[in-house]
């Protein structure tokens, strides 16, 4: 099964071609701030090098979030359109699960996170099981203050007799002192592990349920500030987004 | 007669708070038009919130693409080009259309055309009637107030521009003061027809030789008048307020546009943009053009009301002209939030 997968969730633009679990090619553009101008040419390059057309791809996969809101939408829109037009499978994979998948350690809690500034993180925690199905989520992906995240980590480790933690992703090194206070041996991901890899997203889709291209949306993990302010001011409940958009 | 193949374009528009797709035949015929509006969402905040707009665009993009094709009773095989607005507008919002159009182009192998949103607004006229060139357009919306000279179907030059607020933006701001829901233009237009110009608000830059505009002074004069009356517990007639505001806006727009028509002597006059749906402005421009001397009479094209606001049909119309000249985009096409038509050379001196 040929899988084309991509991540535009962070500054690393990553596109990969997998044949099942095997990564055939992965191309990365580190510190890329213009995903819009570069994503399609990178996809095109990979297809040409492998003498494939988009129509020969069986499944499209994308990092669905968390991450840069604008970045996420570029990748998600692209795979939605591919899958919708070519009638192929599409799967959205957690950006944090993809980060965690770069760590092979067992009996270790893998904390994957993206710096959301002011000591806040889009983060989740994962563990590798024996079955090689990819890391399993044990602390749900969310928007956490570092203190909240670290107490959840400490609690999980205590309850599950885990004595090792890996922090992978961005912005964790500056929390070294706070992390030390958890009194659990820890390490940080390597440079290579700290970026999101398209090839790992492709691998993770093998066990993911395909999504309906029309329903596939970024997982922002946060409402917009405007909505939060409106909710506070009016006390009105959030309605489904579809209530606010109408065809005229 | 030589058989000329029909050219069908599927167009995307997502520059602000409308997600739209359309199939346009030969740049003239709207075979389908889907517009998903987010107005209800942004009314919660009193104006368009860019991040909210982008989130809504991606929710509907694949569905409305399929709908545009099925409503036009065509398939991808019948499409000759895929067009998309790439600027100006909200960058996050533009990126949904641009990403979708590029992905569609990659998936189908159909060539891609990037369209300037303002060129699109002006080309809504082409969907009503054939344009004879050179033409002159008054482009008025929430984001722009420009007088544009059309040398031919793809070469446009700005001869006049607003120095501060756009006319539509001024409508929304005074609408907020009067407690009118965003977007306020339609209601203010209706109220204006029931009132009289009694406040005599300033007509900024009306006497100046150039074709530029300024609406922030008018907006401030309006707000000061309103708040002053409030402080002394005086209730002003909202219909007269609306009529006075609208008269000031239309006076300046009409005076400067007529002066530009006299200078450039175009074959066609066009109005475009959301404010082109304003009845006061449409009536006034029709009247002014009727009053022109016999030798200056020209064709007037006021687009259909439903094509004045943002829609993908106008993008398909403009894209057809670019298609004829082989002006295609490639996969590096990116959103350009501050894209601008070129200024006429005499304005650069
Ligand atoms: Zn517009």
Give a written overview of the molecule:
The complex is a heterodimer of chains A (248) and B (349). With 248 residues, chain A is of the alpha/beta class. Chain A is built from seven helices and eleven strands. Chain A has helices at 35-49, 69-86, 95-100, 146-159, 176-180, 198-204, 225-234, and strands at 2-7, 13-19, 22-29, 59-65, 89-94, 109-115, 120-127, 136-145, 165-169, 186-188, 246-247. A five-stranded mixed beta sheet of chain A has the order 3-2-1-4-5, sandwiched between helices. A five-stranded mixed beta sheet of chain A has the order 8-7-6-9-10. The radius of gyration of chain A is 19 Å and the shape is globular. The mean pLDDT of chain A is 95. Chain B is an alpha/beta fold. Chain B has two domains: 8-124 and 307-340, 2-Layer Sandwich (Nucleotidyltransferase, domain 5), CATH 3.30.420.40; 130-302, Nucleotidyltransferase, domain 5, CATH 3.30.420.40. Helix content of chain B is 40%, strand content 18%. Chain B has helices at residues 39-42, 50-71, 91-108, 117-123, 167-177, 185-192, 216-231, 238-264, 279-290, 312-324; strands spanning 8-13, 18-25, 29-37, 81-87, 112-116, 135-140, 145-152, 155-161, 268-272, 299-301. The radius of gyration of chain B is 20 Å and the shape is globular. Chains A and B meet through helix 1, helix 2, helix 7 and strand 11 of A and strand 3, helix 2 and helix 3 of B. Strand 11 of chain A pairs antiparallel with strand 3 (29-37) of chain B. The structure holds zinc ion. Zinc ion binds next to helix 4 of chain B.
């Amino acid at each position: 099964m040929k899988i084309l997968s991509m991540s535009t969730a962070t500054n690393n633009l990553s596109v990969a071609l997998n044949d099942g679990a095997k990564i055939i090619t992965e191309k990365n553009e580190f510190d890329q701030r213009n995903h819009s101008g570069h994503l399609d040419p990178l996809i095109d390059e990979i297809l040409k090098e492998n003498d494939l057309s988009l129509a020969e791809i069986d499944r499209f996969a994308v990092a669905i979030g968390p991450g840069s809101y604008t970045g996420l939408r570029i990748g998600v829109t692209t795979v939605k359109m591919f899958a919708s037009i070519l009638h192929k499978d599409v799967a959205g994979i957690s950006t944090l699960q993809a980060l965690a998948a770069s760590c092979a350690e067992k009996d270790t809690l893998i904390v994957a996170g993206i710096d959301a500034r002011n000591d806040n993180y889009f983060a989740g925690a994962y563990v590798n099981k024996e079955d090689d199905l990819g890391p399993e989520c044990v602390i749900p992906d969310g928007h956490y203050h570092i203190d909240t995240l670290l107490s959840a980590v400490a609690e999980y480790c205590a309850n599950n007799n885990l004595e090792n933690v890996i922090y992978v992703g961005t912005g964790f090194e500056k929390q070294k002192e706070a992390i030390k206070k958890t009194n659990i041996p820890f390490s940080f991901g390597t440079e290579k592990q700290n970026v999101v890899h398209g090839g790992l997203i492709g691998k993770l889709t093998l066990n993911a349920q395909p999504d309906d291209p029309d329903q596939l949306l970024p997982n922002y993990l946060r409402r917009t500030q405007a909505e939060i302010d409106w909710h506070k001011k009016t006390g009105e409940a959030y309605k489904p987004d579809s209530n606010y958009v109408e065809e005229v | 007669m030589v058989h000329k193949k029909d050219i069908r374009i599927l167009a995307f528009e997502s520059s602000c708070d409308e997600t739209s797709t359309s199939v346009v035949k030969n740049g003239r015929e709207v075979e389908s038009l889907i517009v998903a509006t987010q107005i209800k969402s942004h009314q919660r905040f009193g104006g368009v919130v860019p991040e909210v707009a982008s989130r809504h665009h991606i929710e509907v993009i694949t569905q409305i693409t399929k709908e545009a094709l099925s409503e036009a009773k065509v398939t991808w095989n019948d499409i000759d080009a895929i067009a998309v607005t790439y600027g100006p507008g909200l960058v996050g919002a533009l990126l949904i259309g641009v990403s979708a159009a590029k992905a569609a182009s990659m998936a189908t192998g159909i060539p891609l055309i990037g369209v300037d949103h303002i060129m699109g607004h002006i080309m809504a006229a082409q969907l009503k009637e054939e344009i004879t060139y050179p033409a002159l357009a008054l482009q008025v919306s929430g984001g722009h107030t420009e007088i544009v000279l059309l040398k031919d179907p793809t070469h446009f030059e700005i001869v006049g521009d607003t120095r501060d607020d756009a006319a539509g933006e001024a409508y929304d701001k005074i609408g907020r003061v009067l407690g009118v829901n965003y977007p306020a233009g339609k209601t203010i237009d209706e109220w204006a027809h029931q009132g009289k110009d009694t406040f005599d608000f300033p007509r900024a830059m009306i006497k100046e030789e150039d074709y530029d505009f300024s609406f922030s002074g008018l907006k401030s004069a309006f707000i000061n008048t309103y708040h002053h009356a409030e402080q002394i517990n005086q209730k002003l007639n909202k219909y007269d307020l609306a009529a006075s505001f609208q008269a000031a806006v239309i006076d300046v727009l009409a005076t400067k546009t007529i002066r530009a028509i006299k200078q450039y002597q175009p074959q066609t006059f066009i109005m475009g943009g959301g404010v082109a749906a304003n009845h006061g402005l449409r009536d006034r421009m029709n009247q002014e053009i009727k009053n022109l001397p016999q030798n200056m009479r020209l064709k007037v094209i006021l687009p259909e009301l439903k094509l004045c606001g943002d829609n993908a049909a106008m993008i398909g119309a403009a894209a057809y002209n670019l298609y004829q000249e082989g002006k295609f985009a490639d996969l590096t096409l990116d959103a350009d939030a501050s894209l601008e038509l070129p200024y006429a050379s005499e304005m650069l001196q």
